């Protein structure tokens, strides 16, 4: 027995009129039919429920005193509601008063929470790890479903610079690479490097043996090794304001066949994704989530663009339609200055335009962005040694917010720290008390 749900999910526009149970109803009981029901009338008795003889009902309604109740009869509907559409029918009926304190805490009474509180850094690092797994290492991993999968744990360990020993080693490398070499200091364990090396070796072997082609970085590097790789010179579309133009060095005339590219070289390139694109991209997403949580007007406007884009592309997001989203680009371009990694690389400020701490997507509107001096806005660096992953990082950021905003509202909760406090313990930029937000499921 289920409490009367929103019947739209059953494909029926009108709620069924209800026969009586308990108090007298003013409505006349009428048979309830679902379009296309081809059930054998003999399978389901409708007797005594207000249906004419011989007409099968898949469900019917009644009143339990003032409460409308829906009774399901069709096993397929029961399966649909209890299993497939569980997300819409999560709760048991409430019949114990709140005063029954112990019972009201029991599993039976537990209600689907409107808002779930999540630590977004954990969620985003799992997401960026899965993205690296598929694009750089050529394997499929689901780190949200399999929380302790080896790939994620290895990557997390490799990029965890919160431990004292790693922080000290990092400083040692910075202060004196020569002494670090003499002392044979290493940031990455043998176990970790061997794990990734083995992964790449196995993948390349299987692909060569079975002639598997998968559009990912391993494929591109294997092609480069055969001298088949071509640079994308045509058809490059605008990938967003913040992206940097990769250097031309290595393109065109000076391209050469890299048959000397070893499996270890390929592993090293894949590992770059971990070092540069795992924690950093996730952190960037966390700061963006924070800004969206505390600037609900920006979030709402972005969600409207998400819905409009979905409508435009018939419900299935495409690469081109994602990149056409102007407001999305404005929001992800408006990176808070806190995420200034490149001071670490090159010692110049990444954002030095006026009032850089103010989160203001309007700065990046078509009318305003021309006013930005390019050398005051360098989230991905400048010159030939700029970031090779800017398109990649922005793309995965846009994708994640597209789908989050389609289904959820990001809201501040009790644990959200406003304003955010930056951790002093970690070498890499992160929030002192985590990035806690509420995700409120939208009814769409
Ligand atoms: C939000 C994410 C990211 C930010 C903010 C970022 C930022 C930067 C910055 C500031 C530099 C130094 C540029 C310079 O010295 O002028 C850099 C270099 C680099 N980044 Fe990124 N990056 C991000 C994501 C990625 C990703 C996903 C990859 C993976 C492919 C990546 C790969 C690299 C590499 C390989 C370099 C060194 C390039 C060279 O020395 O030629 N980055 N990045």
TrEMBL record:
Superkingdom of source: Eukaryota
SUPFAM superfamilies (alphabetical): Cytochrome P450 (SSF48264)
Gene Ontology terms for molecular function: heme binding; iron ion binding; monooxygenase activity; oxidoreductase activity, acting on paired donors, with incorporation or reduction of molecular oxygen
This protein's UniProt keywords: Endoplasmic reticulum, Heme, Iron, Membrane, Metal-binding, Microsome, Monooxygenase, Oxidoreductase
Membrane topology annotation: Peripheral membrane protein
Residues that hold heme according to the record: 387
A single GO cellular-component term on record: endoplasmic reticulum membrane
Listed InterPro entries: Cyt_P450, Cyt_P450_CS, Cyt_P450_E_grp-I, Cyt_P450_sf, Insect_CytP450_Detox
Cofactor: heme
Major location (coarse): endoplasmic reticulum
Protein name: Cytochrome P450
Organism: Rhamnusium bicolor
The organism's taxonomic lineage, starting at the top: Eukaryota, Metazoa, Ecdysozoa, Arthropoda, Hexapoda
